[in-house]
Amino acid sequence: MKKRTPVSKIMSANLVTLSSIDDLTTAEELFKTHEIRHIPVVQGEEIIGMLSHTDLLRVSYAETVQEYETEVDIVLNSIFTIEQVMTKNVVTVNASDTIKEVAEVLSTREFHALPVVENNVLVGIVTTTDLIKYLLEQY
């Protein structure tokens, strides 16, 4: 196993992002369409938050009240904004940080994705799934 491999080797660089002015219905559609669980919230190229699918479910009744899904989405979007639901003060890692350093952060915190930045510009995202796939490739 290479000990100094940078996280940029395993991160996802094909980013799906949201803006704080997007609505929660847009976020829900992105989660479903791209089959992802975390979406960075950006202002320009700078990360200002992170929205997880769990965050959305926490404030949504859409998953449990299927027959009223349209009405729930309308109410949900009129009550909550992305900025209210997203995680602020996001922990980030640098593209040059090693996979080991990133694994240490993820193993000691309660989240499963980290935005990857270079000079304060969002360049990728790394998830626990990315780490597991990397470890499996080593065997």
From TrEMBL:
Keywords: CBS domain. InterPro entries: CBS_dom, CBS_dom_sf, Diverse_CBS-Domain. The keyword Glycosyltransferase does not apply. SUPFAM superfamilies: CBS-domain pair. Residues 11-67, 86-139 form the CBS domain. It comes from the Bacteria. This is CBS domain containing membrane protein. It comes from Tenacibaculum jejuense. The lineage of its organism: Bacteria, Pseudomonadati, Bacteroidota, Flavobacteriia, Flavobacteriales.
